[in-house]
Amino acid sequence: MITPNMNYAQLKDSYLFYNISQKINAYMQKHPDARLYKMGIGDVSLPLCDAVIKALHEAVDDQAKKDTFHGYMPECGAPFLRETIASHYLKRNVTLSPDEVFVSSGASDELGDILDLFDKKNSALVIEPAYPAYVDANIIAGRKIYHLPSSQKDNFTPKPDESIDADIIYICSPNNPTGAVFSKAQLKEWVDYANEKGSVILFDAAYEAFIEDDNLPHSIFEIDGAKTCAIEICSLSKTAGFTGTRLGYTVIPKALVRNGMSFNSMWVRNRTTKTNGVSYIIQKGAAAVFTDEGQKQIHKNIGIYKQNAKIFMECFDKLGIWYCGGKNAPYIWIKCPDNMGSWEFFDYLLNEIQVIGTPGEGFGKCGEGYFRFSTFSSPEDTAQAAERIYNLLKSK
Ligand code: PLP
Prior knowledge:
The protein is of the alpha/beta class. It folds into two domains: about 5-50 and about 295-395, Aspartate Aminotransferase, domain 1, CATH 3.90.1150.10; about 50-290, Aspartate Aminotransferase, domain 2 (3-Layer(aba) Sandwich). The chain is about 40% helix and about 15% strand. The chain has helices spanning about 15-30, 50-60, 80-90, 105-115, 135-140, 185-195, 235-240, 265-275, 280-290, 290-320, 340-355, 380-395; strands at about 35-40, 100-105, 125-130, 145-150, 170, 200-205, 230-235, 250, 255-260, 260, 325, 330-335, 355, 360, 370-375. The strands form four sheets. It has a seven-stranded mixed beta sheet, sandwiched between helices. A four-stranded antiparallel beta sheet has the order 11-12-15-14. Helix 2 (about 50-60) packs antiparallel against helix 9 (about 280-290), helix 3 (about 80-90) packs parallel to helix 9 and helix 10 runs parallel beside helix 12 (about 380-395). It is globular and about 60 Å long. The site of pyridoxal-5'-phosphate has 13 residues, from helix 4.
């Protein structure tokens, strides 16, 4: 009889969003006419920009004509898109060869699939609070997981712990859920640690486009030494509203070699075995993101989310509430007032002012006592939510 992967039995229920929806449903049953202000969502709300829509339409028309029709695409990505992305990195002084860039159908898929490159005996280190997929993917693979807590003391950007010998290291910067961003000096410490231990950093850069401070790194490859110890996973989901369109990219430098094995070559082998490439139409749409027009338009949309962030930040500044994030990320991570627990604060906001956010405890134990607000809602709802929060908490 077949033996299922029993590691699935070790997974905790993904209770965070389930619990939230249960609480909302219960509230709505009691108050069917209530208007909710949803400030917890991780999905974007603005549509694709014009440059992308135009490219998608043109690509659809290409598929209608014999001369321009495309069948299977190259498994690792269309050369036009790999070249475009490599040129985009060059703007940050990161030199990549196009075959170090792999096109994917999104960061989530890639964060799971990339673990094929590592032995099951390798351990994984997850800096918490964290995007839940890192822990779950490694539980499914049966790996030992080190949970490295971060805190207000280190501004949620902890240093490596020399006493831990971790093989796979997850760093998400700008971070979901905290919005914290690692500086170049902080990343350099992680790069040195990884090179010294022979580990590999999986750098999740899904929110890099939200960075506005010039001195903060968008890519781990802006750090000396990263090409021998890091893989970068990126996505157009939040950068350009591709959550429903699906496109991401992964950078695996050729210099990343362990035990004589090149991770770049292994990934080529993996992709050619396990995928048949991303749709031509979507790759054409993605290439439009990197044109001058596309960049202008996506940054206009990001600017709208940033304006939402400003409204929240002003509210928390006035209330004297500690927070991080917001400036270089679409998330704001606050310390719950009056030492309230994360879920206690959730209930308080829902019951008193119908504002919904995400309890920090859902991202790891050290998130208890903190709360995440997202800036992806409409400007109108964000302004309403911030006003309600201010009026509720000003007398506290
Ligand atoms: N990484 C982080 C940190 C995220 O927050 C998300 C989505 O919310 C993803 C990856 C997944 O992105 P994608 O839509 O490309 O799968």
